Amino acid sequence: MQDRLDPVDRKILEELTQNARIPVAELARKVGLSKTPVALRIRHMEEIGLITGYRAILSPLKLGLTNVTYLEVSMNDTREHALQQFNTAVRAIPEVEECYMIAGGCDYLLKVRSRDMAHFRQILAEKISILPHISNTSSHVSMEAVVEQNFNLG
């Protein structure tokens, strides 16, 4: 897919990732085309699934969610049915910002946002520890975010 993006498409995507609310006229000016071709390119990238949506990015810090904990989760059952049960249940926990099934020393890695350690402990005890098929967890508390949301087309 990346090979089929011309420099104009790349510039459009770069601008949209910085500000998805940019007016098409301003975007067109920045990429050196008129509004209609830019709008058509955006629509095409949406239709082929390259652009999957637009959303507001909230500030966790302004919401008081200053604590980030990465949680390794090991499962006592890794058959497909058990994994699907876990996946469905973990998606329902709003404090879990990200969840990845991984290869390595554990089965899943979760990024959990909370107000403070007491709040994280409550989330762990009342929501995460009761998820199906968990055998154990290991927590890693973030001290500082060095890079966040740094995706670009490079």
Automatic annotation (TrEMBL):
The domain of life is Bacteria
Q: Per its UniProt record, what SUPFAM superfamilies does this chain match?
A: Dimeric alpha+beta barrel, Winged helix' DNA-binding domain
Gene Ontology cellular-component terms for this entry are: cytosol
The membrane-spanning stretches of this chain are none
User: Some GO term, biological process aspect, for this entry: which one?
Assistant: response to amino acid
Q: Where is the HTH asnC-type domain?
A: 5-66
Q: Which GO terms describe its molecular function?
A: sequence-specific DNA binding
Q: Which residues form a coiled coil?
A: none
Under InterPro entries, the record lists: ArsR-like_HTH (IPR011991), AsnC-type_HTH_dom (IPR000485), Dimeric_a/b-barrel (IPR011008), Tscrpt_reg_AsnC-like (IPR019888), Tscrpt_reg_AsnC/Lrp_C (IPR019887), Tscrpt_reg_HTH_AsnC-type_CS (IPR019885), WH-like_DNA-bd_sf (IPR036388), WH_DNA-bd_sf (IPR036390)
Instruction: For this UniProt record, give its keywords in alphabetical order, as a comma-separated list.
Output: DNA-binding, Transcription, Transcription regulation
Report what the protein is called.
Lrp/AsnC family transcriptional regulator
Organism (species): Paracoccus yeei
Lineage from the top down? Bacteria, Pseudomonadati, Pseudomonadota, Alphaproteobacteria, Rhodobacterales
